[in-house]
Amino acid sequence: MQNDKTLTVLPPSLPKGGGSMQGMGETLTMGGPMGASTLTVPFPITSSRGYAPQLALSYSSLSGTGIFGRGWQALAPSIRLRTSHGVPRYAKEDTFLSPDGEILRIALNAQGKEDTRVTRSLQGVTLPASWRVTRYQPRIVQDFSRFEYWQPDTGNTDLPFWVVFSPSGEVSIWGKTDLARIANPADKSQIAEWCLEESVTPTGEHIAYQYRAENDAQCDADEKKQHPLSSAQRYLAQINYGNIKPQASLFALDKTSPAENQWLFHLVLDYGERGVTLNQPPAYAASQPDGWLLRSDSFSRFDYGFEVRTRRLCRQVLMFHRLEALAGRTVANEKPALIARQLFTYALNADAATLNGIQAVAYDEAGAVQTMPPLSFTYQPAEEGGWSGWQPMPILEKYNLLQPYQIVDLYGEGSRGSCIRMCRGRGGTGHRSGGRANPLPMTPWRLCRQCPPSRMRACLSTLMATASWTGW
């Protein structure tokens, strides 16, 4: 039988993506204005009822060393003092920075004065003492959040904290307790950072952040002697969210915090208190609370005027669920079940620890281990050594800003290499320094034909940003 239908031949094609093999949700970004590469790896955080902490592990080639090794950061947001203009004085003239790094300024009221009030209540909760509340706003307003700085009023012996009101109705409190503040161990009133401690939505959903203070655990005698006041650092230890009973006000304003069995989800950051064996699931409670490990590259920072020493590395991130409570059953002393886990491996040395790999692990109902291929990292090693072609310039051995010298790009080579000297109507030029692979030798000083007659503060400049230097 004859068939006159057209025969359709499908061309070969590659299968579409989105199959079963997926990564950890990492995002890699290259380039940027500074040429830095960035990588973001999200933590295994359960979404809950749509309100969960936003926290991820981020790498930047411009970042320094942190609790995840060189270049990696996953810090909880904080309000802090600015240190780019010097050590804070812990007085009114200090400048605050928002969690986004924007400068905070005191907001003005309708009369053009500082918006300040005295109150004894917050979110309808009566406080034990009076507080002086000052409203702040970012220098560049982005999301119209309202920042309030709560300082103790007369007769109040508590320490200041922050409250932030977002346009969505979310209210967060920062640095209400001692563990949520980075302060001078010798003077607790000198607070440098207020860490995010709790947030609540208009529907009563809460997220609570818990921190640990640095201590001398696992430290030898030399470490303790060289760093006697090293308890200022704070480590994010646990995040509780998915509260069973809603509450409109912050739990931090109550006299007692809710018990742990009143939360459905627990995100735990482990610093060595639990086991790190792949095939053995760690327990919810730390087997050795003071057993967190000492890193080999402990470091300190002093930009706040006191030492903030970091001695710990985050070894793993654990996601726990209360399965019975999620099913609507009440079980006394229920132990949270480990659902997901991120295990970190480091290359440890005395210079800087580097994160070499991230292993994503999950567990089924029987406790069997389910793993994904690890995410591995290699780094370009820093090569020591320098160029041996530099030549000394004795004329600049005692160079300082008070002497009449100026380093300019006199020949338009793209780098400053010529030295100009002005002295009471006379000027001279020295040749280029060794800025190239084949440097030219420095020439003797030469007298400039045209130079300012007697102005000591004159300088050579070009208005058109070209190599043509035509005026002083």
From TrEMBL:
<keyword id="KW-0808">Transferase</keyword>
<dbReference type="GO" id="GO:0106274">
    <property type="term" value="F:NAD+-protein-arginine ADP-ribosyltransferase activity"/>
</dbReference>
<dbReference type="GO" id="GO:0005576">
    <property type="term" value="C:extracellular region"/>
</dbReference>
<keyword id="KW-0328">Glycosyltransferase</keyword>
<dbReference type="GO" id="GO:0005737">
    <property type="term" value="C:cytoplasm"/>
</dbReference>
<protein>
    <submittedName>
        <fullName>Mono(ADP-ribosyl)transferase SpvB</fullName>
        <ecNumber>2.4.2.31</ecNumber>
    </submittedName>
</protein>
<keyword id="KW-0843">Virulence</keyword>
<keyword id="KW-0964">Secreted</keyword>
<dbReference type="Pfam" id="PF03534">
    <property type="entry name" value="SpvB"/>
</dbReference>
<dbReference type="InterPro" id="IPR003284">
    <property type="entry name" value="Sal_SpvB"/>
</dbReference>
